[in-house]
Amino acid sequence: METFTTLKRRTTERLQSLPQSLQKMPSVSMPSVNMPSMPSMPSMPTMPSMPAMPSLGRGKGKPSSDALKGTWERISLPPLPRSSHTVDVVAGTAYIFGGDGRVRQPVDNDVYAVSLPQGFAGADCYAIKPKPAPQSVEHAPQEEGVATTPSSGKNKGLTEIPLGDAPNVPIIREPSPAGRAPPPPEEEEESSEEEESSRGRAKSLVDRHPWPPARSGHSLCAVTTGGGREYLLLMLGEGGDKQYWDDIWAFQVPSLGMSMASVTDAVLTVFRRKTGEGRWYRVETTAYDEDDPSAAEGPGPRGYIATSVDHDENAVVIWGGVGPGGKKQGDGWILRLGERARG
């Protein structure tokens, strides 16, 4: 039998020769297997984008801005100074008639047609002069033997009575059994309570939101902006003691039905948010034409202007008026709501 030392030596030799024998073994390469490619999945159709909902904050928030944006455009034409006149816009043309040059002295009876500026085309104006109709007297043929009377042509059943000679015909009414009955006390109390509550509501509105000062000789026009939103535009006017205003205010009225504005208001109402209906907004103006930056100030303080809504442009045309010192104004302007400017 081999000794333990001999077995140990042989085992060590076998272990040392094992790496060399492994290197001499032939390498076996595995065959490449091409897996069939999976068919590409069809692309999903693009879903239409949902309309943007108004952002709703927490608690009682106020609008992001207490002012609306507007633009002034100057109508570059020779002046037609006048006040207490009228203007109407039809198919892009403003028609001006009448007015005072001095106090209670009409200027003329011409019709001035002002072609409003559109795109790169400027404004133009021409006068339509009145032409008197030719005077001609035509006599109807008369039958022989028939004399004309002053009452010919009138109904023979009617008699002419001078106004002062007409008999007084009493009008008999059934008398009330109790005479003039005063309104019931309940109605008086309810009306007085309604007056007090309405005064309180008006006072709270004045305290919480800006309000236009009192004035006369101003203009109030209804305009519609994008999305069905409607406003009443309060423009210019006289504040008393020959002080004239140059500010523009917008009063928000209910929006048009079935419009984006009405949907937005309905969502705000559901979340107990205010829609802005029934409040005033100050209109901040800039120049509509970038080449005329001075137009941002608008027509300046004046009253007794003539205005008309241009429905094609959703704009208001202003002409003439009375300025400080009682001077008659003869320029024209176009007011638009929004920030769109022409370069």
From TrEMBL:
SUPFAM superfamilies: Galactose oxidase, central domain
Alphabetized InterPro entries for the sequence: Gal_Oxase/kelch_b-propeller (IPR011043), Kelch-typ_b-propeller (IPR015915)
Keyword field contains Repeat: yes
Keyword vocabulary terms for this entry: Iron, Repeat
Low complexity composition-biased segments: 25-55
Ranges where the record places region Disordered: 1-68, 132-212
Biased composition (Acidic residues): 185-196
One example of a Gene Ontology biological process annotation: glucosinolate metabolic process
Polar residues bias spans: 14-24
UniProt protein name: Uncharacterized protein
Lineage: Eukaryota, Fungi, Dikarya, Ascomycota, Pezizomycotina
